[in-house]
Amino acid sequence: MQQQPAIELKDEERTRCEVWTRVMGYHRPVASFNTGKQGEFHERRHFDQQRAG
C-alpha cells in the first residue's frame, strides 16, 4: 500500500473553523459566547468513563 503525501496548506488557503457546542439542550456557536463563557468552554476537560465491572 502506497503512502499518501501529507497535505499542506498555505496560510492564505486556510479558513476559520466554526466550533459549536451543546448548551442547555441546544447547540450554539462558541463564537457567540461572551468572554467569560468562552473562557469556561476552553477550560473544559474531556474524559472517557469506563464501564463498571
UniProtKB/TrEMBL annotation:
GO MF terms held by the record: oxidoreductase activity
UniProt-recorded name of the protein: Anaerobic ribonucleoside-triphosphate reductase
Keywords per UniProt: Oxidoreductase
EC number: 1.1.98.6
Enzyme class, first EC level, given as a word: oxidoreductase
Superkingdom of origin organism: Bacteria
Pfam families, per the entry: NRDD (PF13597)
InterPro entries, per database record: NrdD (IPR012833)
